[in-house]
C-alpha cells in the first residue's frame, strides 16, 4: 500500500519564456516501509520534489497524498501539526539549536508539540545512534557525523511514519557518509518507517531499496524506476 503518492504534481516558477518547470507532471508512489533514493543532477527538481512530499512548499498544480490524505487541502496550521507528527526531516545542514545540548535538541520536537517524552523509546534511539556519551555536549563540541546523528535522532523522536532526508551526507566524508546512511537504514527498518532520500551520489543511492531518477522536473522514462 502506498504511504506517499503524488498525482500530476507540478511546480512552475515565472511565466512565458522565463517559466521554469521545476516539477512537470510527476506521478510517484512509495510503499510503506520502502527506502527510496531520488537521484538527479543539480537543478533536476529532486529537492523541490522532496519539499513537496513533506509539505514544505505548495505545488502549482497536483496532489501529494500521505496515507491517502491530500496534505495541501489542510489549513496552514493543520499542515504544520501534521508535518510535525507524521514526517521526520534530516537536512544536509543539521539545523541543530546551538545553545541546546544533544538531549535537548533531540527531544525538542516532542516538547514543541506539548507532549511527554517517551523515555524508553528515546533511550533506544540514542543508543542505536551511539549518542549515549554525548547527551550533555553542545553541537559545537561534536563532529559533523555526530551532529548528523543528533539530527537523525531528532527526526525519529516523534515516531514519524515517513523520514525525508535531503542530501544527508552532503557535508560528510565518504567513510562517515557510509556510517550515517547505514544508521538511517537501520533505524528506518527498526522503527518500520518509510524513508525517502535525495542525493546526487550514485554510490550512496545504491544503499536504497529503489532508485528513482529525475531530470528537468520529470521522472526518468515516465517514472520508471531502477533497482
For the structure shown, list the relevant keywords.
single chain; 227 residues; alpha/beta; seven-stranded mixed sheet; four-stranded antiparallel sheet; 8 helices; 11 strands; 34% helix
Structure description:
By secondary structure, this protein is of the alpha/beta class. The protein is built from 8 helices and 11 strands. Strands 3, 6, 7, 8, 9, 10 and 11 form a 7-stranded mixed sheet that branches. The protein has a 4-stranded antiparallel sheet with strand order 2-1-4-5, with helices on one face. Strand 4 and strand 5 (69-70) form a beta hairpin. Helix 5 (144-156) runs parallel beside helix 6 (174-190). The model is unreliable at 222-227 (pLDDT under 50).
Q: Mind sketching the topology for me?
A:
Elements: E1 2-13, E2 20-31, E3 35-39, H1 46-53, E4 61-66, E5 69-70, H2 76-86, E6 87-91, H3 102-112, H4 119-128, H5 144-156, E7 162-166, H6 174-190, E8 194-199, H7 202-205, E9 210-215, E10 218-219, H8 220-223, E11 225-226
Parallel strand pairs: 3-8, 3-9, 6-7, 7-8
Antiparallel strand pairs: 1-2, 1-4, 4-5, 9-10, 9-11
Helix pairs in contact: 3-5, 5-6
